[in-house]
Write a structure and sequence with these properties.
The structure is a single chain. Helices cover 38% and strands 18% of the residues. Helix 7 crosses helix 11 (248-264) and helix 8 (200-211) packs across helix 11. Mean pLDDT is 91; it is low at 4-10. The protein has helices at residues 17-27, 44-51, 64-74, 109-117, 122-125, 135-141, 152-160, 200-211, 218-224, 228-234, 248-264; strands at residues 13-14, 34-38, 56-60, 79-81, 98-103, 126-134, 161-169, 174-175, 182-189. A 7-stranded mixed beta sheet has the order 4-3-2-5-6-9-7, sandwiched between helices. A two-stranded antiparallel sheet has the order 1-8. It is an alpha/beta fold. It has 11 helices and 9 strands. The protein has 2 domains: 7-189, Rossmann fold (3-Layer(aba) Sandwich), CATH 3.40.50; 200-264, Helicase, Ruva Protein, domain 3, CATH 1.10.8.100.
Length: 265
């Protein structure tokens, strides 16, 4: 497929066949599988997924010229949608535990991941995600508490996903060659997780904390609560801690207290 990649869409096509096969194997696709591919591009991964003969295969491609070429090449093997993946209402999808593959454009990768995490029925819609990120973003997703990469993305992901970084990929495995390394990250939605009335409250709390990530936690707590001392005592927090010292579970509890305060006011 003769393609001129579009910089505006962040197109970098993975070409290494061995890596493509490893990615497909991570999906453990069977004849009962529902598969979604985000950004099939030139169809390198698409072709290998088709060989696994999933029960249903949907590919979502924003680039209209790539969409047309894929449509003519694979018209009988998959359902192809020409749409911006950030504008899809995933709640319209049936609860079929889909396996999602995606070589995500770096400029939308974190936003798309958070969109998925905030879905109420994430664990019913999706079985697993095998996604490509810029390495720096992947490292933030999987970062542990007390590390300098730990932050909002780590906490939001940990809320609803089990996550594992599988491998890093060098730039020369792509066309065109990106300026940075990439990473494959494997996610599985959790069946049980902390409950919020509105997940935006967790986003707001983590945003306020990590805007002041070098400050002690007393400052963001004062922003969020009328009586921060009460929260510090109730949750047994060390007010001299910094945001990166608090584990995800603590952020969930703080967010729940914030949510309760909003309700009571």
């Amino acid at each position: 497929m003769n393609i001129v990649p579009k910089k505006s869409l962040g197109q970098n096509f993975l070409q290494n066949k061995n890596i493509i096969n490893k990615i497909v194997e991570l999906g453990q696709i069977s004849s009962d599988s529902y598969v979604i591919e985000i950004g099939p591009g030139t169809g390198n991964l698409t072709e290998e997924i088709i060989k696994k003969k999933p029960k249903k295969f949907l590919a979502i491609e924003k680039d209209v010229s790539l969409y047309r070429k894929l449509k003519s090449k694979y018209k009988s093997n998959l359902d192809l949608v020409n749409q911006d993946v950030l504008k899809i209402d995933w709640n319209n999808f049936s609860n079929n535990h889909s396996i999602v593959f995606g070589n995500l454009p770096y400029n939308i990768s974190a936003k798309l991941l958070i969109n998925w995490i905030k879905l109420n029925n994430l664990n019913l819609l999706f079985k697993k995600f095998i996604l490509m990120f810029q390495k720096e973003v992947a490292d933030r997703i999987v970062a542990d508490v007390n590390s300098n990469k730990y932050g909002r993305l780590s906490i939001l992901t940990n809320w609803k996903m089990k996550v594992n970084k599988v491998m890093d990929i060098e730039p020369e495995n792509f066309f065109p060659k990106p300026k940075v390394k990439s990473s494959i990250v494997y996610f599985e939605p959790k069946n049980s997780f902390f409950s919020f009335n509105n997940p935006n409250n967790l986003e707001k709390v983590t945003n306020i904390f990590f805007q002041n990530k070098r400050k002690m936690i007393k400052k963001p707590l004062n922003i969020l609560f009328q009586n921060s001392s009460k929260i510090i005592n109730k949750l047994e927090l060390n007010e001299k801690s910094r945001p990166q010292n608090l584990n995800p579970q603590t952020f969930f509890k703080i967010s729940k207290e914030f949510e309760n305060e909003l309700t009571s006011n």
